[in-house]
Design goal:
By secondary structure, this protein is α/β, with parallel strands linked by helices. 26% of the residues lie in helices and 22% in strands.
């Protein structure tokens, strides 16, 4: 199965007070950790949707095998970035893993587990990692949902497409809470830096 990855990296980081994607973690910008995990996974190609300070974000990812897609409408919310990424996917892609640029603790192993589970259980519209009963990220969307992305507005993301359709979503249990941790505040970033894996 052809599975791609989209990294949403266009937001304004209003809660962080600075561009969170460029904040350092283990000597690298947050967004570079996300990109490295995506590139180490089974997903290909890896598309990065940029918007706010796109030059700086792209510079932080210099040298990596990524395709960049600009989102001039990034200020209108997350949905615009998801739309831009979906439109840019090659025609042969059958599913896509949607990653958030501020979740650097998500591993390629977690991505691969979601992809493998989806491939082994055809008929679902999506697959999502679950930690202790709670849905996390990244979310895998089948091509059957790509058309529905066009109807999203504002800050609605992939999750909104799954509302009321839980029976068609494959839940993939994971053993780490990394799938729940987005670093969008200074406090969250400080806490992440104190974790054992940092």
């Amino acid at each position: 199965m052809s599975v791609a990855a989209i990294i949403l990296a266009a937001g304004r980081s209003t809660r962080m007070g600075a561009n969170k994607l460029l904040e350092p973690l283990r000597g690298k910008p947050l967004v570079r950790h996300v990109a490295n995990a995506a590139l180490a996974s089974k997903a290909h190609p890896v598309i990065v949707v940029t918007g706010h300070q796109h030059e700086r974000v792209e510079a932080a990812l210099d040298g990596l095998d990524l395709a960049f897609v600009p989102n001039p409408d990034f200020a209108d919310g997350l949905s615009t970035s998801l739309k831009a990424g979906i439109v840019a996917l090659p025609a042969e892609v059958e599913a896509v893993v949607v990653l958030l640029g501020d979740m650097p603790l998500v591993t390629s192993e977690a991505m691969n587990n979601v992809i493998a589970a989806f491939e082994a259980s055809p008929g679902n519209i999506a697959a999502i990692p679950v930690y202790q009963g709670e849905w996390g990220n990244p979310v895998l969307l089948s091509r059957s949902l790509f058309g529905a992305v066009a109807a999203l507005q504002g800050d609605a993301g992939a999750r909104k497409l799954l509302n009321g359709r839980a029976g068609e979503v494959l839940e993939v249990p994971v053993t780490s809470d990394a799938i729940l941790i987005d670093l969008d505040t200074p406090e969250a970033l400080a806490k992440a830096r104190m974790r054992n894996e940092i």
